[in-house]
Design brief:
This protein is mostly helical. It folds into two domains: 89 residues, Winged helix-like DNA-binding domain superfamily/Winged helix DNA-binding domain (Arc Repressor Mutant, subunit A), CATH 1.10.10.10; 45 residues. Helices cover 62% and strands 8% of the residues. It has six helices and four strands; from the N terminus they run ββαααββααα. It has a two-stranded antiparallel ribbon with strand order 1-2. α1 crosses α3. It is elongated and about 65 Å long.
Length: 143
């Protein structure tokens, strides 16, 4: 890990948000923060790591997106039970830009639309019965 603190502040070798995300996620992985633990407040993280409130908030947002933490408004941010899938997502999400996300969505739209078209063209009567049953069960559970 490229964490480098000088007098409590991170060097600017990487994006500060990425540094804070890396620090907090490593503390979660190492067990310093256990599932159910409350993270330090924004002010405490700012003081500990020498970063701005904006950096802390963006970092917490990324940890939420990775499902490593959950914020309960007015109460605090709590560590969730991490899974291997979540750990991969936090690393992958750290470098994505809006342009990257749009490209991924465009790719998914084209692939998923084609897959749906092929599935519809190749479906059998049995497939239709199974889908109807699943939809009926879904509607029953909603009611």
């Amino acid at each position: 890990m490229l964490l480098a603190r000088a007098s409590g502040a991170f060097r600017r070798s990487r994006n500060l948000t990425e540094e804070v995300v890396a620090d907090l996620s490593e503390r979660i992985r190492s067990g310093a923060f256990q599932p159910g633990d409350k993270l330090p407040t924004e002010s405490e993280i700012m003081a500990q790591l020498g970063v701005s409130r904006t950096v802390v908030r963006e970092s917490i947002s990324r940890l939420q997106a990775a499902r490593l933490v959950q914020t309960r408004h007015g109460i605090g941010t709590f560590v969730l039970e991490p899974s291997d899938q979540d750990r991969f997502q936090i690393e992958a999400a750290g470098e994505l830009t809006v342009r990257d996300v749009m490209a991924i969505l465009e790719l998914r739209i084209s692939l998923e639309a084609e897959a749906a078209g092929l599935a519809a063209a190749r479906r059998s009567e049995e497939n239709l019965k199974q889908m109807r049953h699943a939809l009926d069960e879904f509607e029953r559970h909603i009611a």
